């Protein structure tokens, strides 16, 4: 499973980064787990391993809503007084310019050497100076209003951005544990198969053990009479398990292969059970 994830890493991490938020990343994670499970099932030959893989992937899918791998948080804030503050700043700037201009005109009026209209010009200069002071005062008031007094009424928006590399590393660690579990299941199955095969080969009935032991003893004794007696016991044992030892005759000739011989007789008996031939015999046919 880890190998399949590593093969998909470039495309997988790109999809996670494009998803951005944990909610949008859930379908990406589910789709990747599904792909890994399909490829794993194709690679596994044992049904028990497939079932275990499906159960583990199912458990991981159930835990996906718990994804918490936030890399950074984007924050947007918008004050309720932003628009009015902008207007106040604009008014303050215009009034400041007007005040400066009026003050400049007033100063110029005082400095002009015009004795004929001096009294009128002085009066106008005084009025312009008063107007300039009023403009500067209002500019200061609007300037104060343009500064936000606090955060009350502000609108704040936050968005959690996922860490694609962290999610990949976490998923890889989970799949590594799943691979180890599957390997453990495979090892147990192989051990059971070997153990079952050994037991099947080793377990014999008490009658079989006794018969084989006696035959081996007869072979070691070099006593032909003793060996013959033990061979006769083999006939009795086969009869006890419904296998008949059949000698050659005209009625049983179909159960034998025949060879030319100096005399007619059984060379190897046939084995029959319930009227069905289990093993053909061999008979010599005299000329």
Protein described:
It is built from eight helices and eight strands. The strands form three sheets. Strands 3-6-7 form a three-stranded antiparallel β-sheet. A three-stranded mixed β-sheet has the order 4-8-5, with no helix packed on it. A two-stranded antiparallel ribbon has the order 1-2. Residues 149-153 have low confidence and may be disordered. The chain is an alpha+beta fold.
Number of helices: 8
Which radius of gyration do the C-alpha atoms yield? Answer: 53 Å
Low-confidence stretches: 149-153
**End-to-end distance, in Å?**
74 Å
H-E string: HHHEHHEHHHEEEEEE
User: Biggest sheet, in brief?
Assistant: 3 strands, antiparallel
Q: Quick one: overall form?
A: rod-shaped
Helix content: 55-70%
Summarize model confidence as the mean pLDDT. Answer: 74
Global structural class: alpha+beta
Strand order of the largest sheet: 3-6-7
Strand content: 15-25%
DSSP, total strands: 8
Defining traits:
287 residues; alpha+beta; 3-stranded antiparallel beta sheet; 3-stranded mixed beta sheet; 8 strands; 15% strand; rod-shaped
Task: Describe the structure in brief.
Helices cover 65% and strands 15% of the residues. The strands form 3 sheets. A 3-stranded antiparallel beta sheet has the order 3-6-7.
Any chance you could write out the topology, listing elements then pairs?
Blueprint: H1 2-19, H2 22-43, H3 47-63, E1 70-78, H4 82-111, H5 118-145, E2 155-162, H6 164-202, H7 206-221, H8 224-240, E3 244-246, E4 256-261, E5 265-268, E6 270-273, E7 276-279, E8 281-286
Parallel strand pairs: 4-8
Antiparallel strand pairs: 1-2, 3-6, 5-8, 6-7
